[in-house]
Write a structure and sequence with these properties.
100 residues; mainly alpha; 58% helix; elongated
Length: 100
């Protein structure tokens, strides 16, 4: 149980005032970053992206069309980071619409 002599002002003086100063000091000084570790994470991420892209392309190239030819002969020109191109690739175009 709390003491009846404590108040919100006491709480402010003990915790919040010092916390605000601490946060302001942290903002002024900044935060340390291990640049080498960050660059390593970036390298790993770029490797994973390229690996995933290659696997997706291999998968898409292995899908035959109804006549036995490659379903997607222009895969090299597809940008897998384009949401519009992925939409057309995965779901096809809307019937009756002219390509943009």
């Amino acid at each position: 149980q709390r003491s009846s002599s404590s108040s919100m002002w006491n709480m402010y003086e003990v915790y919040i005032r010092d916390m605000a100063k601490c946060l302001a000091d942290m903002e002024a000084v900044g935060i340390g970053v291990d640049v080498e570790r960050l660059q390593g994470i970036e390298r790993d991420m770029l490797h994973d992206i390229e690996y995933s892209r290659n696997r997706a392309m291999e998968c898409l190239q292995s899908i035959p069309g109804h006549d036995g030819t490659q379903l997607n002969p222009d895969l090299d020109s597809i940008n897998l980071f384009s949401s519009k191109q992925l939409q057309v690739l995965l779901f096809g175009g809307a019937p009756g619409r002219k390509p943009e």
